[in-house]
Design goal:
The complex is a heterodimer of chains A (about 290) and B (about 375).
Chain A (H helix, E strand, L loop, with lengths): L1 H31 L17 H8 L3 H29 L7 H9 L6 H12 L6 H8 L7 H4 L1 H26 L3 H9 L4 H28 L4 H5 L12 H11 L3 H26 L6
Helix pairs in contact in A: 1-13, 2-13, 3-8, 3-10, 3-12, 5-8, 8-10, 9-10, 10-13, 12-13
Chain B lengths: L1 E11 L4 E11 L3 E5 L6 H9 L6 E6 L2 E2 L10 E4 L11 H11 L4 H14 L15 H13 L5 E5 L7 H18 L2 E6 L2 H7 L2 E6 L2 E6 L1 H6 L4 H6 L6 E5 L1 E5 L2 E6 L2 E6 L11 E5 L4 E4 L5 E10 L4 E7 L4 E6 L10 E6 L5 E3 L14
Parallel strand pairs in B: 3-8, 3-9, 6-7, 7-8
Antiparallel strand pairs in B: 1-2, 1-4, 4-5, 9-10, 11-15, 12-13, 13-14, 15-21, 16-20, 17-18, 17-20, 18-19
Protein name (chain A): Sugar ABC transporter permease
Membrane topology (chain A): Multi-pass membrane protein
Organism (chain A): Marinomonas arctica
């Protein structure tokens, strides 16, 4: 009796969540099996696996998958490595520590679109960007970052956006590190590097795992930075899966193929998650 | 021969003068305990010796080498922390061998040293465990083992037993005393617990407000304190202090007026000139209950039975409460008026500046 009341009371939220998830998923699955082109309304006949075939054989598919993975891994490595180093650097008290921390964390509050515009127009612009000015004042040719190194530019922007998140997590984690342990290591003859290597890094294992997982969720779906700066180009050089799906749906008006692409992205995300959790998840149980 | 010499050591924090000129010499193999109330600077002194705090004046010399400015990793000292500070992600074996691995000692030697230390501390069965899988006492032993394995010149202990429960604390105290006998290494031990200080120490250093109040063997401090602070700090229950305002000299004796009754105190036990007034210090065990006569009388407020002995709280005519030690199965009742005889040979006199102005006669 008591149990059924509990279930009854929980039912609305459970059903709500289920509907929330099931309806978009089943509609995506449904769209991916029919012909659904916005240019040809009304011709929504069943086409089986054809949308998937179209998506996978699309010339943008291979670059999009590899760009997605390259972007993900590069940003993860940059944010975790730089994040750990910067956090360790600002962990010891120094004059202006509070301001430095705020400055390091503030990029996180800037929305991706604005971030991309800042980098595109203020930093990387070959004529009046800061990078161009630096190379010119050193006597080099200015580089047109967005057309010469499109993916690297995107990686730079996204890293800038996500480094603060990593720093935020690591700085907090470092504050919980036991000072007596560090002192004990000092007495044991450890240098600063030894303490970092044998105490700080193991202490940060769990925060690193958390940062990697959370960032993975968002980095698989990077879109605004690409849309605002490179538009996926030149060619497919900076197109990732999210951008390719957008391209299919709203530039080529083929919702069916885009839905198939969306399902593929879900599968890819699961594969990546599987390996990542295998790789870093064991730290979570410590 | 002095082994560790501390000369005029100073430590200032921003506006706080934590160590005010510490002078101390410690000989090799000695077990020295720093004791004092919280905030007296005992931990700061230990941490300054360890090099974890830098001093702002004076110097420290260890085995003929000035180590005042030497980094703590190069001082050849080992420290056991209050929180044990074991490395949480390393096994017990790795914790024990950490310092040796950093010092690039050969694997065979590390193995041998870890084996012998773990055997002597009964850690053999725990070598593969992580610190969080150990009990408090086991962690404590690992922390001690981690210090021993390096064979340092001096062991430093920072309140190592304060996180243990009472029974375990007594046991670990005994093990520490045994360890010191066996190793013969110089040990410096910080505690706020005067029982630990009395039981472990060869010499006790009593600190108060950043200064050394008195240094001596436990019994010296107990019988012949320099000041009221030491007298009150050492001994449980505390020494009773009764003010006496009228002191008259009768030939070789002083007649001290103690709440209307006179007690006789020999002049030759007095240091310095004849005082006008004094504070009379008597330990609870130096008073006995008598049927008649006696030096003081009071009304029993409360009797604490400890089994092996009892402590009676007595209210004197001045409303002051004193504590006296009574036999275990005493028939004392609350409210009863009793007479007390004072053992004059153990009485200590303090002047108004809380310094001791009497000497205790040598025991025959």
């Amino acid at each position: 009796m008591k149990r059924s009341i509990t279930r009854l009371l929980m039912a609305p939220s459970v059903i709500m969540l289920l509907v929330w998830m099931i309806i978009p998923l089943s509609m995506t699955i449904y769209f991916s099996t029919i012909r659904y082109n916005l240019l040809y309304p009304g011709q929504n006949n069943f086409v089986g696996w054809m949308n998937f075939e179209f998506f996978i054989t699309d010339p943008g598919f291979i670059p999009a998958v590899s760009n997605t993975l390259i972007l993900l891994l590069s940003v993860l490595i940059i944010t975790v490595v730089l994040g750990v180093m910067l956090s360790a650097l600002i962990d010891k008290p120094f004059f202006g520590q509070g301001i430095v921390r705020v400055l390091l964390i503030s990029p996180f509050f800037i929305m991706p679109t604005v971030n991309a515009l800042i980098w595109k127009n203020m930093m990387m612009n070959p004529v009046y960007g800061i990078f161009a000015w630096i190379s010119e004042s050193l006597g080099f040719e200015p580089i047109d970052w967005l057309s010469s190194y499109p993916l690297a530019s995107i990686i730079m922007m996204v890293s800038w956006q996500w480094l603060p998140f990593a720093i935020l997590v690591f700085v907090t984690a470092l504050q919980s590190q036991d000072t007596e342990q560090k002192e004990a290591a000092q007495m044991d003859g450890a240098t600063g590097w030894h303490i970092f290597r044998y105490l700080t890094i193991p202490h940060l294992a769990r925060p690193i795992a958390v940062v990697v997982m959370i960032e993975t969720i968002f980095l698989l779906a990077v879109f605004a930075e690409i849309f605002v700066s490179t538009g996926g180009g030149p060619g497919y050089d900076s197109t990732n899966l999210a951008y390719l799906i957008y391209n299919q749906a709203l530039l080529q008006y083929d919702v069916g193929v885009a839905s198939a692409g969306g399902l593929f992205a879900v599968i890819l995300a699961n594969i990546v998650a599987f390996f990542l959790i295998r790789a870093v998840g064991k730290n979570l149980t410590v | 021969m002095s082994y560790l010499t501390i000369t005029d050591l100073q430590k200032h924090y921003d506006s706080y003068h934590a160590l005010r000129g510490i002078n101390l010499t410690i000989t090799e193999g000695e077990f020295v305990v720093f004791v004092g109330p919280s905030g007296c600077g005992k931990s700061t002194l230990l941490r300054t010796i360890a090099g974890l705090e830098s001093s702002t004046g004076g110097n420290i010399e260890l085995d003929g080498r000035d180590i005042t400015e030497v980094a703590s990793s190069k001082r050849d000292l080992a420290m056991v922390f209050q929180s044990y500070a074991l490395y949480p992600h390393m096994t017990v074996a790795d914790n024990l061998s950490f310092a040796l691995r950093l010092a690039k000692v050969s694997d065979a030697e590390i193995k041998e040293k870890v084996r012998s230390v773990s055997a002597s501390l009964q850690l053999d069965a725990l070598l593969e465990r992580k610190p969080k899988e150990l009990s408090g006492g086991q962690r404590q032993r690992v922390a001690i083992g981690r210090a021993i394995v390096r064979q340092p010149k001096v062991f430093l202990f920072d309140e190592p037993l304060s996180n243990l429960d009472a029974a375990l604390r007594v046991q670990m105290r005994l093990e520490l005393a045994r360890l010191h006998k066996k190793l013969g290494t110089t040990m410096i031990y910080v505690t706020h617990d005067q029982v630990e200080a009395m039981t472990l120490a060869d010499r006790v250093v009593i600190l108060n407000a950043g200064q050394i109040e008195q240094v001596g063997t436990p019994l010296e401090l107990y019988r012949q304190p320099n000041s009221r602070f030491v007298a009150e700090f050492i001994g449980t229950p505390k020494m009773n202090l009764i003010p006496a305002n009228k002191i008259v000299r009768h030939e070789d004796n002083l007649a001290i007026d103690l709440l209307g009754q006179q007690i006789i105190f020999p002049v030759n036990r007095l240091k310095g000139p004849l005082p006008k007034s004094a504070i009379v210090g008597i330990r609870p065990e130096h008073m006995t209950l008598v049927q008649e006569g006696g030096d003081l009388s009071g009304r029993i407020e409360l009797v604490e039975h400890l089994g092996s002995e009892a402590y009676a709280h007595l209210q004197l005519s001045s409303d002051q409460t004193i504590i006296i030690k009574a036999p275990a199965r005493t028939a004392l009742k609350d409210g009863q008026v009793v007479n007390i005889k004072i053992d004059m040979s153990e009485v200590i006199l303090f002047n108004e500046n809380d310094r001791v102005i009497s000497v205790i006669p040598e025991e025959v």
